[in-house]
Structures are given as C-alpha cells and as structure tokens.
Amino acid sequence: MTENPQPFEGIPLIAPSSTDHPLYEPIVEACRSVFDPEIPVNIYDLGLIYTIDIDAENAVSIIMTLTAPGCPVAGEMPGWVADAIEPLPGVKQVDVELVWEPPWGMDMMSDEARLELGFM
C-alpha cells in the first residue's frame, strides 16, 4: 500500500499578503477601524484578517474569518470591511471572502489584543 502525500503539503494555510504594496498599511489601518461587536478589539488585531492581496490595478482581495461560524454578524462583517477599505485613495475595488479554514484561534491575536482582553 503506497502512501499518498497530502494534496496541500507545502502550501500555506493562509495565503501571503501584499505587504510591500504602498496601499498595504492604509488598508491595515482601515481594517483596524472595524470591530467585532462582541469583543472590544479591532478585527485586524484579533487575527480575523488572513490575507490582504493587492493586484497591479489596486484591486484589493481580503480573505478573513470570524471568531465562530455562528457569529451573529457573519453576514454583515465582510461588508463592513469593504466599506472601510473602498474609500481609501487609490483603491480600485474590494472583494472580501469569508473562510472557515484554517479556523480562528486565540493564538492568532496580536499582543495588543491579548493585552486588551487581559490574556497577558
């Protein structure tokens, strides 16, 4: 019996962000203006933004998750994120995709978020 390698072996679970793009930091700051209504920390520091991808035409693709699939704002949160980013100068369009893999965990929070919530 031969062992089949995992089909995703070597592929990161979270795609890399366009950190070297000039719009990256303003987009991060825009994401920091969006809060999960149940947790007093912005969604970026909570670790809910997995990927910020910016293409050559400045179209922005966000891959994000929520703290739980049953989150009461699951239907609204992607729109809040798009609404925060779209007004930025230079942004052509924003597409926000909600994913559940990999699942969010408290280890994805920034140190600031952990401190704010009393976990350190």
TrEMBL record:
Coiled coil where?
none
Boundaries of each MIP18 family-like domain copy? Answer: 27-96
For this protein, the record's Pfam families field holds: FeS_assembly_P
Q: What is this protein called in UniProt? A: SUF system Fe-S cluster assembly protein
Q: Which organism is it from?
A: Roseovarius spongiae
